[in-house]
Amino acid sequence: MTSSRRSRLVERIGVQLGRELSTRTIVFHQTVADCLGIAATDHKCLGFIAEADHPVTAGELATLTGLTSGAITGVIDRLEGAGLAFRERDPRDRRRVVVTAAPTAHERVAPLFEGLGRAALKLASRYDDRELEVVERYLVDCLEMMGEETRRLQAERLGAQFSSSNSSSSGGPTRVGGRSASR
Amino acid sequence: MTSSRRSRLVERIGVQLGRELSTRTIVFHQTVADCLGIAATDHKCLGFIAEADHPVTAGELATLTGLTSGAITGVIDRLEGAGLAFRERDPRDRRRVVVTAAPTAHERVAPLFEGLGRAALKLASRYDDRELEVVERYLVDCLEMMGEETRRLQAERLGAQFSSSNSSSSGGPTRVGGRSASR
DNA sequence: CCAGATAACTTAGTCGCTAAGATTATTAGC
DNA sequence: GCTAATAATCTTAGCGACTAAGTTATCTGG
């Protein structure tokens, strides 16, 4: 392969990852949330709740999403309203609110991902073992890279302006939506 | 490779693509928008404007993003306010508003992506030609798959409820944010 | 020309977010 | 045990971005 052809290939991969795939992923998740009748942020939180290997508290959700505690109260209200999750007070520490996915939540969410899951399996069948390992390696590398670049930009931004009240909770690590904290 | 090991590999790829990468991509784009001092939606629109190979009208932005014309008016207002784009009336059809990226827009946005670009190049250097081709093929396949599944879900959703006033503009195909149209 | 279609803007209302403070529960010091 | 400090969530006020509906300006076909 000529070096110019290779650099065009690298360029195409960048465009597909950074532009196309990100857009389509966002649109897909928005569509799933629409189907569930909730906002994208609520869906994201439901994901955190359902996938965690331990009971999740309201405060944990705030840290995970970068939202304020007040916003999380609203998220849980709406998830309860939609019958997808419910609150319980932690008996050991009655200040805490533990959020649990409703028993029926999985059976309402799963069908929406079923088509994608089947398609992904079918897609994988067109790749041999070695190729799939390459794909996984590349994705893991990309994750690492994206995370690092995001942290760099966030640090740069906070270090640069360093003015308005940016002392929200505990330096929220993973913004998933909502407004900028600079107002 | 045993078949169970392979299916675990496929599972891991799915999680990385559908969960990790999508989250990190959203957070990254949110961070870029924060750095520019605009909302994520505005950044997305600026992307459409800058990357298009033809002048973009307000109506086109509405179709591309799935937002209403009123929302686009606000987007363009804010992009103008930030000095990143400007309006012009189309001389041929004076109803139309053509949006153009400001000359300085690129030099303000590009630095934010520079680090990621360099990292992506460095990452690519760890893969040989054949491996990169596998990655590209997989990504293109994924794009196709995501698009198809999104369309399927949207069609299912609209076909299923078919009640409230869902006659917004021209059946917006690519929602990028904002609220659900069902209220 | 004039009626209808089309493009963007305007306005009113809604929703989800932040920030700040109130409320309730726990823990530590004395 | 009482008090103060701390912690976790909820409440409230205000804001910004969005939708839906209506308005204005322009274009197009009879």
Overview of the molecule:
Two copies of one chain form a homodimer. Chain A is mainly alpha-helical and 183 residues long. Chain A contains six helices and three strands; from the N terminus they run ααβααββαα. Chain A has helices at 3-36, 40-51, 58-65, 69-81, 105-124, 129-161, and strands spanning 56-57, 85-89, 97-101. Chain A has a three-stranded antiparallel β-sheet. In chain A, a hairpin with a 7-residue loop joins strand 2 (85-89) and strand 3. In chain A, helix 2 packs across helix 4 (69-81) and helix 3 (58-65) packs across helix 4. The radius of gyration of chain A is 20 Å and the shape is globular. The first copy, chain A, starts with a helix and ends in a 22-residue tail after the last helix. Mean pLDDT of chain A is 87; it is low at 162-173. Chains A and B meet through helix 1, helix 2, helix 5 and helix 6 of A and helix 1, helix 2, helix 5 and helix 6 of B. Chain B binds a DNA duplex (30 and 30 nucleotides) through helix 3 and helix 4.
